[in-house]
Design a protein that fits this description.
- The structure is a single chain.
- By secondary structure, the protein is of the alpha+beta class.
- The protein has 1 helix and 5 strands; from the N terminus they run E-E-E-E-E-H.
- Strands 1-2-3-5-4 form a 5-stranded mixed beta barrel.
Length: 109
């Protein structure tokens, strides 16, 4: 059995959503490190701009690599409309500049 852990951050991008399975794959920008973490889970409410606390386990998928499998989402701070717009613009600028790096080492695997 894998150890459950918690990470905090803001959703950077929804990479994949299967409405039939309610599967979501996304990237989360961690709160204090600014690292991008691949996250996945079922039936996840993942609003842009809100500060989230995600509980789950670290997995290594043969196709997609390391990811955080989310079992619980807690909204710690709701973003205002202005904050959400600024966040989406900042993400677009980082993508344009080729910025951001995906976390490759987990605290617990």
């Amino acid at each position: 059995m894998r150890k459950t852990t918690t990470i905090r951050g803001i959703i950077e991008e929804i990479c994949f959503h299967d409405p039939k399975l309610n599967l979501v794959i996304a990237t989360l920008r961690e709160e204090h490190t600014d690292d991008l973490v691949k996250i996945s889970g079922f039936n996840l409410p993942l609003p842009y701009g809100d500060l989230l606390e995600l509980t789950g386990i670290w997995l290594i998928d043969a196709e997609t690599g390391q990811q955080f499998r989310v079992s619980q989402v807690t909204v710690l701070e709701y973003a205002s409309l202005d904050t959400t717009i600024r966040h989406v613009r900042a993400v677009a600028e980082r993508r344009k500049a080729g910025g951001g790096h995906t976390k490759t080492a987990a605290a617990t695997v």
